[in-house]
Amino acid sequence: MTNPLATNFTGLEFVNPFVLASAPPTESKRKILKAFESGWGGVVTKTIGLHPVENVAGPKTIFQRTSEEKPYVSRSKRPDTVPHSSWNWELISDQPLEQWLPDLEEIKATYPDRMLIASIMAGAGSIEEMNNWKKLATAVVNAGCDAIELNMSCPHMDRKDMGAHIANDEDIIRSVLAAVTSVVDVPIWVKLTPSTSTLADAAGAAYEAGASAISLCNTFPSLPLMDPETMKFEVEVDGYVTSGGQGGLAILNQALQRVSDISRAYPDKAISGIGGIKGWHEAFNFIVQGAGNLQVCTAAMEEKGSGGVGVKLIQELKTDLADYLERKGFASIEEFRGIARERIVEHSQIRRKSEGYNGGYEKSA
Ligand SMILES: Cc1cc2nc3c(=O)[nH]c(=O)nc-3n(C[C@H](O)[C@H](O)[C@H](O)COP(=O)(O)O)c2cc1C
């Protein structure tokens, strides 16, 4: 019997389109094995790099909540609240490459039918850094990874040649892709930052340089909130904060807009949709905007009792997708992927009550 949840994305066969995004849920062999046992179709590992990593001397992630009565957003535990978003300033994996490699081998050997994508990150602007991209790519592919995701999107890197800082530079995007594609022959996904006005250009440069997919969105650059009573930030170290990243439901609409921008500019290219997926409704919205693969982070971390890998969440996502396909008579997500594209038009193309509106311009006589 065919599996209606199965999807081919960038040439890889996924048993279902749901993937844990690069983040704490995929930071260790133990968690990834548990994720696969729970049913996730793939994982993107926590980003692996070669440069020194030391996280802040305090909490790395907080979960913000809101409520109907006094609906302020806060991490403080209050009755009758619902999740709003995550905020984090966590750096990439502090587990060295040498330790990751045997773990990746074991994971792939244990779950050969699940897609193992390695997120990697190095710097830019020198031959040494291009060699670092090559070293990382070669090593993870030799360890059995099915694809690579290039992290050009981490919003809180001090180094100006890394993460979101480089995603605005098309030359760097091209040179990193040239380096990586010169040494490996697996699909390359490029994770871009949503925080740029030139996103479609960056995506275009990446596709042209050999990217099989754009993964979008990483967290949105943002600050934590200050508590009016204590006059302290809700997360800080010695009274100080710095820009971090927001994820979870609160970024859903913005993430969809970014995915739509790329999807409409490059309708034939692949997109892995990320940002605020908490259940089937959000996943559906990414698919209709053109995403062929769905990544989840905050919602899996928020799930209590699952060790932060979204055990119940993946069951729900799979059941809800299967129900939906059956109810609507669709053979797979491909039958409705991208249907929202043509319904997104210029503001002036939306009907007005009168006939005469000319997009804010005077009509010429
Ligand atoms: C604590 C935390 C750590 C993260 N670390 C990484 C990372 O190492 N590499 C990466 O590409 N994205 C990282 N992300 C971003 C997520 O992969 C994802 O893009 C983002 O959280 C949006 O998805 P969500 O709304 O489902 O959380 C991290 C997110 C969180 C919350």
Secondary-structure blueprint:
Blueprint: E1 7-9, E2 12-14, E3 18-20, H1 29-38, E4 42-44, E5 48-49, E6 61-66, E7 82-88, H2 97-110, E8 115-121, H3 127-142, E9 147-152, H4 170-181, E10 188-192, H5 199-208, E11 213-216, E12 220-222, E13 226-227, E14 232-233, E15 244-247, H6 252-265, E16 270-274, H7 280-288, E17 293-296, H8 298-302, H9 311-328
Parallel strand pairs: 3-4, 3-17, 4-8, 5-8, 8-9, 9-10, 10-11, 11-16, 16-17
Antiparallel strand pairs: 1-2, 6-7, 7-15, 12-15, 13-14
Helix pairs in contact: 3-4, 4-5, 5-6
This protein binds flavin mononucleotide.
Function: Involved in pyrimidine base degradation. Catalyzes physiologically the reduction of uracil to 5,6-dihydrouracil (DHU) by using NADH as a specific cosubstrate. It also catalyzes the reverse reaction and the reduction of thymine to 5,6-dihydrothymine (DHT).
Catalytic activity: 5,6-dihydrothymine + NAD(+) = thymine + NADH + H(+); 5,6-dihydrouracil + NAD(+) = uracil + NADH + H(+)
Enzyme class: oxidoreductase
Structure description:
Keywords: Oxidoreductase. This protein is an alpha/beta fold and about 375 residues long. The chain has one domain (about 5-55, about 90-230, about 240-350): TIM Barrel (Alpha-Beta Barrel), CATH 3.20.20.70. About 30% of the residues lie in helices and about 20% in strands. It has helices at about 30-40, 95-110, 125-140, 170-180, 200-210, 250-265, 280-290, 300, 310-330, and strands at about 5-10, 10-15, 20, 40-45, 50, 60-65, 80-90, 115-120, 145-150, 190, 215, 220, 225, 230-235, 245, 270-275, 295. Strands 3-4-8-9-10-11-16-17 form an eight-stranded parallel beta barrel, surrounded by eight helices. α3 crosses α4 (about 170-180) and α5 (about 200-210) packs across α6. The protein binds flavin mononucleotide. Flavin mononucleotide (FMN) binds near residues 23, 24, 219, 248 and 277.
